[in-house]
Structure formats: C-alpha cells, structure tokens
Design a protein that fits this description.
By secondary structure, the chain is α/β, with parallel strands linked by helices. It is built from 8 helices and 7 strands, in the order αααβαββαβββααβα. The protein has one domain: 2-Layer Sandwich (Beta Polymerase, domain 2), CATH 3.30.460. It has a 7-stranded mixed sheet. β4 and β5 form a beta hairpin. α4 runs antiparallel to α5. The C terminus is likely disordered.
Length: 151
C-alpha cells in the first residue's frame, strides 16, 4: 500500500480489509475508568465484553466497551451499575436509550459504553461495523464472562 493512498483506496485493498480485526492490544494501557466500567458490568453479570480501540480510526472517542444483558431489566441494571460506579470517581456520562433498554449508550467522552440486549447486539453488530478497530485483550477475570457462541 502506498503511504499517501486515500482512505477509499485503502478500504478497497483486500489484503488490509480484515487485518485490523485480528489485531489485539494489551489491556495494560487502558484508563482506570474503562476497567472500572468493565468491573461494574461484570458485577451485574454482563456477557460477552469487548473493548475496541478506536484511536486510529475515529476522532469522536478513543474506546468502545460493548457488553450484553439477557433482558431489558439486566441491561438497565448493568447501565445503572456502570453509571453509579463511575459517578463515584467523578465521571459524568451522557446516557441515551435507557427507557427502551434495547441499547443503552453511556458517553464518557474518551470512551463510550454500549450495553445491549442480546438480540439488539446481534442486529446492530458494532464489532462488524467497527471491524477496523483493534480489539483489546481483556484481563483474565473478564474474559471468562463470554456466553455468546459464534456460528
């Protein structure tokens, strides 16, 4: 790939299109607030946690934390726990989608927490949409909370 090629040219080149999806980074570089949000979601039994590093491909935020709940009440409980946990440390979030509880978004500026009901997560498939992002390797205690099966 030429160093001065356009984004369009780069996206049309097959050898780079899927490469970023398989790249992972260590969780050691993560902000403590992201780890606190991950812990809070885990405390409420969130499933299939994923952290995407968007720093190289997006300007509006640095990371996505994506988790799922099995029903609307659990989605709200996960969202509440993350919100309250980070509020204690002085972080305020803008919250969207709380009433419908299909997809709750907590925007902390430099990272965004997405809490999905499982069917909504499969439908919107943010991991596919942001496949160019690097996946952050989760600490061992959180990697065990994945119940999602790949087909």
């Amino acid at each position: 790939m030429k160093p001065n090629s356009t984004v369009k040219e780069q996206s049309l080149t097959p050898h780079t299109a899927g490469r970023a999806q398989t790249e992972t980074s260590s969780s050691g570089e993560l902000d403590s607030r992201i780890l606190a949000a991950l812990q809070a979601s885990s405390d409420k039994k969130a499933v299939d946690p994923v952290i995407l590093d968007l720093r190289e491909i997006a300007s509006f935020t640095d990371y996505f934390l994506i988790v799922s709940g099995t029903n609307e009440r659990q989605v709200q409980a996960i969202s509440d726990e993350v919100y309250e946990s980070l509020k204690k440390s002085g972080s305020a979030a803008r919250v969207e989608g709380y009433k419908t509880a299909e997809w709750i978004l907590l925007d902390y500026g430099d990272f965004v927490v997405h809490v999905f009901e499982q069917k909504a997560r499969q439908f919107y498939d943010l991991e596919r949409l942001w496949r160019e992002a690097k996946r952050i390797e989760l600490p061992a205690e959180f990697a065990q909370s994945s119940l999602r099966t790949e087909s």
